[in-house]
Amino acid sequence: MKKSIIFIAVTAFVISLTIFSREVAAQDVQDEKLPSLVISATGYETPQSHVSSDITVITKEDISHLPVHDIGEAIIYTTGITITSGGGTGTASAASIQGSDFRHVKLMVDGVPLENFSEGFPDLTLIPLDSVERIEILKGSASSVWGASLGGVINIITKAPAEKTQAEGGISVGENSTRRYNASLSGRIKDTGYYLSFNRFDTDGFHDYQKAKNNYFYAKATENFTPTLKGELSYGYTGIDRQDGGWIATELTFEQHGRIMLTYTPKEEYELSLSAYDRNMDIRLIDIATDTENLRDRQNAYGGNLRSVWRHSKDSAFSFSVEGEHGHLEETPAVVDNFDVDKGAVLANENLGLGDLTLNFGGRYDSNSAFGSEVSPSAGAVYGIAGNTLFRISVAKGFTPPPLPWRYRGLTPNPGLNAERAWSYQAGLESDAVPGLLGKVTFFRADITDLATWKRDVNDINSNGNLSEILTFVNLNKVRREGVEVEVRTQEYNGLRLSYGYAFNDVTDLQTGQTVSGQARVTHNIGVDYKGPMATRATLNGHYVWWNADPSADARDKTLVLDAKVSKYFARWKYVMGECFVAVYNITDQNQYSYFAYPNPPRWVEAGINLTTF
Q: How far apart are CA 236 and CA 377, in angstroms?
């Protein structure tokens, strides 16, 4: 009965999109434009209509109207994205793109890779949402530009200093002592720009062992040394004190990263940039019952990038880059294990504009002291058929090395463990040819070889007289991921905009022919955005997922979780604008989680206020 209700609801929503679009077509509605520039496809700013990669952009304006607190919550409504979290707001979360493993997704912040050497876990809660200018999500292999990124890239671009002095502040309060505080200051002093941001999030959690106290600080400074030479310095700090229900432990995580970059533009068509970064992370797991430290990871990485860009015609550009990084991991489960890895890369790509046709070519050579070398070519094309109708096609080779301890640690380490590799294919069409509607269809496929997984072997009789088992990580599986994504949204009509996204994903073990469990098979996303009278705005967003989980995970799925936010905007005094809001999460109180130890929160309510000077 419940499945029938969900099916009817989703079907009715899709039909309403069509009816609504006819009404829009009768009005004089300004065409919605694609975000003009993206950097995730090439590593430098490129018109989105000129790249063959499938990229979704979420702007700070989009985020401001959503009932969300972190990156994971902000991107969960994106078609083809599923989020695995530790049980709710403030807990660790990671993303899967088109059925990929979470370790196959690379997380970048202003050019700094936020990698976890011990688990390959790109924790999305390490980044303060309030400092985000936009989020670019590249679906499919991106190794020809970003290196280890077999499944895709989540690229965070933070806010730039404001041209005039601007201050922002906000506070919200929700159930179970859930509180959020944020403050920022931005502006310019002559040729120097600055941006400072502080955020804190606290919650007692909605289930046992899910408390969180997360503190964030982010700073950025820019300097125009000359008309052709600019500099940028950024620094981010995250301090997390939370409980992990799966480990029944307190997790203390401290992460900080910084980058310095110089950009030289002698002529409009030439650009040369040099950047260097440093990143440190310290993770501790402390047993709640015994107050003893079970695990400690200390990680450090420093590296740099030299990139040149030559825009040799209006719609064409060539780029060449050299990169390097040294990483160190010190892990303490019982004895101290130390792992080091050195990486180097050379890459080049060409965007060749030929009128309505744009060709993309790229290639990258990576050297990794632990996992050897990889060559990652890519090629694609974009063809403008008419107006804003675009046809995209691309092919790319990708790779991701497994976490370092998988190769070296354990009773039976496997020094022969290789990087995981895949060929990725995509073809898609996006268009506004139907009046009032913006539509997009994407077909994707990835053939993965050398997929790393653990192998269970029976060893000798242990001290208890039982057969003991040893887990060894090996390159065992060959897997194919393939599916389709459909996205539809209406243009705004009388303040109302509707959106819908559908994704089907099939993951097949090519050796057995069986469907692989543990990756989402079907997702639906719905969105309603209404600009009401008297400076009000209301959004309603829903996410449905079929996890296709292993029975042992005791997952809860095939439910539609709805979140809503209602805002009232106001102006006070001469230079201050404000927003009062109420948000309701999981309105219908549904269960939706992939593993029994991390249940999602029940229905809860939050209210708050945000102030901005202008």
A: 33
